[in-house]
Q: What sequence folds into this?
């Protein structure tokens, strides 16, 4: 087999064509966009991204854990083209089409646990979170919501009210939703006793009986790719059972095969009452879902809806994506996840700035510290690493205070893993010496 023709840097990015796009964008787009580094995309294939100047990168971030099947998987592209050639819209809230019903069935059957589930389709993760807040309150007739320090649930009002990963997502946007308490999340690397802290809150300020729902990411995403202690996840399941609250797993980042199982919660052996998915579900086409136990999805006709949610082209993309994940993504996420983990452990042995490596499948966090003893986060190093890796042909993305999240397309190859790790190694050697 011939060696892949990437990564390749023909001109230090941003090249002249990228510069033009960036200038246009800066003139007209909202200043709230982040733009992590000056990548102006032209195309991609598998875990390779090509920019408009012909540079090619290995992709360790999949457009923030979205491009699960790569950038143009032939089966997904064919499904999108076929669906687009028939009709672009009719509104699934009011009318029927087969792909929408089939996707609901498929997700309902994939839901963790034995009981029957029902499915509401959305355009985004935040819309799924928003709908789940409404469903939880409507069903339980209670108001109070619990989420966690470090959580990210999206940018709409209910979602930012639950979010607690960075203060800038909330600052200046109040008043937010009332009746939200943020509890500490489990962090095996940094320690603490989050269950004791929660019990303290229930003793002093919040009656457990008032809680409608607990929103939890089974692996913390934006907050630092933290895999919680399963005991912590189990505690919240039994809390909900005891007090008549719903356990909502936000699997928008961790789900749809990313961890080598359909849902990250399967690693913990804990079932939610409501599961939220989006991101990788449609390989980049905008689609998400609220998957709830039938006994919980009790809202009546017309109480909730969406003009675009479950768009027919997006449904076709999701059905094809689920096929690809089932056929190759799940097994590959486990295999490549192992390879990645082994390679990262070797890097950790060489580079003292790597404090912790954790993850499941292809959802892996690498935490950088100034000193392994004090565990002081080294956010400056992470910023420099992200930029330097980009200039060498590796796409990384940070999260938390000083973590690189590795969330590549689930179809990446051994070559991609090894070549990406090689660039990471080179960057760390340069940054530290
Ligand atoms: C765990 C989690 N929930 C919700 C969201 C929001 O999804 P969206 O950006 O599609 O609204 C995200 C996005 O990063 C996420 O990671």
A:
């Amino acid at each position: 087999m011939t060696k892949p023709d990437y990564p390749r840097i023909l001109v230090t990015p941003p090249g002249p064509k990228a510069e033009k796009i960036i200038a246009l964008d800066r003139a007209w787009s909202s200043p709230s966009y982040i733009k992590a580094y000056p990548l102006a995309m032209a195309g991609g294939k598998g875990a390779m991204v090509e920019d408009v100047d012909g540079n090619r990168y290995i992709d360790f971030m999949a457009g923030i854990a979205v491009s699960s099947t790569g950038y143009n998987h032939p089966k997904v592209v064919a499904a999108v083209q076929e669906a687009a050639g028939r009709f672009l819209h009719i509104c699934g809230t009011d009318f029927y089409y087969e792909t929408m019903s089939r996707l609901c069935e498929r997700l309902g059957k994939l839901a963790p646990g034995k009981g029957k589930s029902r499915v509401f389709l959305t355009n985004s993760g935040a819309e799924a979170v928003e709908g789940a807040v409404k469903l939880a309150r409507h069903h339980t007739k209670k108001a109070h919501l619990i989420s966690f320090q470090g959580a990210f649930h999206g940018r709409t009002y209910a979602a930012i009210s639950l979010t607690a990963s960075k203060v800038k997502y909330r600052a200046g946007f109040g008043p937010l939703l009332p009746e939200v308490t943020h509890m500490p999340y489990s962090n095996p690397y940094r320690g603490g006793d989050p269950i004791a802290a929660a019990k303290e809150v229930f003793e002093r300020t919040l009656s457990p009986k008032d809680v409608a729902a607990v929103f939890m990411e089974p692996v913390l995403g934006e907050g630092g790719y933290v895999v919680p202690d399963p005991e912590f996840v189990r505690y919240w399941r039994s809390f909900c059972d005891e007090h008549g609250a719903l356990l909502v797993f936000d699997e928008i980042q961790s789900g749809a095969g990313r961890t080598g199982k359909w849902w990250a919660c399967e690693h913990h052996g804990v079932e939610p009452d409501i599961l939220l998915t989006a991101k990788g579900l449609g390989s980049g086409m905008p689609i998400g879902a609220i998957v709830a136990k039938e006994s919980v999805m009790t809202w009546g006709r017309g109480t909730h809806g969406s003009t675009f949610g479950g768009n027919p082209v997006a449904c076709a993309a999701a059905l094809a994506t689920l096929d690809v994940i089932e056929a190759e993504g799940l097994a590959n996420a486990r295999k490549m996840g192992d390879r990645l983990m082994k390679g990262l452990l070797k890097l950790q042995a060489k580079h003292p700035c790597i404090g912790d490596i954790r993850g499941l499948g292809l959802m892996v966090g690498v935490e950088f510290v100034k000193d392994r003893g004090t565990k002081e986060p080294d956010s400056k190093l992470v910023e420099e690493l992200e930029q330097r890796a980009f200039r060498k042909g590796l796409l990384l993305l940070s999260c938390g205070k000083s973590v690189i999240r590795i969330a590549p397309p689930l179809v990446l190859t051994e070559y991609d893993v090894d070549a990406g790790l090689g660039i990471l190694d080179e960057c760390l050697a340069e940054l530290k010496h």
The pocket of pyridoxal-5'-phosphate is lined by residues 64, 124-126, 129, 152-154, 217, 221-222, 250, 252-253, 278 (CB under 6 Å).
